[in-house]
UniProtKB/TrEMBL annotation:
Keywords for this protein: Oxidoreductase
Annotated organism of origin: Cohnella terricola
Designated name of the protein: Nitroreductase family protein
Stored PANTHER family: NAD(P)H NITROREDUCTASE YDGI-RELATED, NADH DEHYDROGENASE_NAD(P)H NITROREDUCTASE XCC3605-RELATED
Coiled coil ranges: none
Length: 212
């Protein structure tokens, strides 16, 4: 894990990332490498380490045909990419809390007393949070994962495009997910660029930073 990232200059990965819309439709990323990239991206931070991101990998002709009418004006990415990655936030991620914290103790990454204390807080608080707050937390954390996934993909030599233009109210049901539990965050296309994305302008740091 991370061999691709360690062998690349991180600044060039960040500066070289482009939003690519047209991919080489004949190029296919293997399931094994997609899994590797998702695992690497999953090292992103999250609230209480609940890791609420969930990914639906759409890489079959049947899956893409199902997704096509739901991505509005993003059909080129759907039709030419190696895969479309549907990112969801799990509003019930706390159901994995015991598994996560028990594993941390088993692997010597956390003392048992710390686990017990944190689990007590998580399991007493998270289930009772208002639904709107659960969705907000899940979306923020899943967005951190999504950004990391795009950088990991770049380190592996692939291109991506994050999309918000899709039928948010239909995509979970279309891919057999519980609409009440899983909140759509974004869709990321991934593949080998056929047409390079354009370099875009960014505001300077003095325009976006407030020093106090």
């Amino acid at each position: 894990m991370f061999n691709h990232i360690q062998n690349n200059d991180f600044a060039s990965i960040v500066k070289g990332r482009r939003s690519v819309r047209h991919y080489d439709e004949n190029f296919k990323i293997s399931k094994e490498e997609l899994n590797e990239m998702i695992s690497e991206a999953s090292l992103a931070p999250s609230s209480a380490n609940m890791q609420p991101w969930r990914v639906v990998v759409v890489d079959t002709p049947e899956g893409k045909e199902k997704l096509r009418p739901l991505v509005r004006f993003n059909t080129v990415q759907n039709d030419t990419s190696s895969a479309m990655l549907l990112i969801f936030g799990d509003t019930e991620s706390y159901l994995y809390a015991e598994e996560i914290y028990n594993t941390a103790v088993e692997e010597g990454k956390m003392p048992a007393e710390v686990r017990d204390r944190q689990l007590g807080t998580i399991l007493s608080m998270y289930p009772t949070l208002p639904k709107e707050l659960k969705i907000e937390v899940a979306k923020i954390d899943s967005s951190l994962f999504a950004m990391q996934l795009m950088l990991v993909a770049r380190a592996h030599g692939y291109d991506t495009n994050p999309m918000a233009g899709f039928e948010v109210d239909q995509v979970a049901k279309a891919f057999d997910l519980d609409e009440e539990r899983y909140a759509p965050v974004m869709i990321i296309s991934i593949g080998k660029a056929k047409e390079e994305g354009h370099e875009s302008v960014r505001l300077s740091s003095d325009k976006i930073t407030f020093w106090r």
